[in-house]
Amino acid sequence: MSKLDAVRAMREARYAEAQTRAGAGRPAPRRAPGPASKPSTPPAPEPTASDEELCGHRNIGGRTCTRERGHAAKTHRYG
């Protein structure tokens, strides 16, 4: 068997193993039925006084700017 044949056989074996693992996955957890009138999303938290004074700009990672609202700085400070 050549080196390429060995690599191909190994790749096919890994693929077959991954397929059997995916097919034999764990069953989905059962959820208890809740009341029909209750909303599925929780209410948004009330903003505090300190939250209202912040800039609030968000970066791609979801972090929020901690400078004061309407700051004159050209950059935002995430931290």
Tell how many strands the DSSP assignment holds.
0
Report the total helices: 2
Question: What's the overall geometry?
Answer: flat
Tell me the radius of gyration.
26 Å
- Largest beta-sheet characterization: none
As residue ranges, the low-confidence spans are none
Mean pLDDT: 78
Structural class: mainly alpha
Strand-and-helix sequence, N→C?
Answer: HH
Determine the fraction of residues in helical runs and give it as a percent range. 25-40%
Into which percentage range does the β-strand content fall? under 5%
Distance N to C terminus: 57 Å
Write the layout of secondary structure elements.
Elements: H1 3-23, H2 49-52
Question: How would you describe this structure to a colleague?
Answer:
This protein is mostly helical and 79 residues long. The chain has a domain at 47-72. 32% of the residues lie in helices and 0% in strands. The protein is built from 2 helices and no strands. The longest helix has 21 residues, at 3-23. The protein is flat, with a radius of gyration of 26 Å. Residues 1-15 have a biased composition (Basic and acidic residues). Residues 21-39 have a biased composition (Low complexity). Residues 1-79 are annotated as: Disordered.
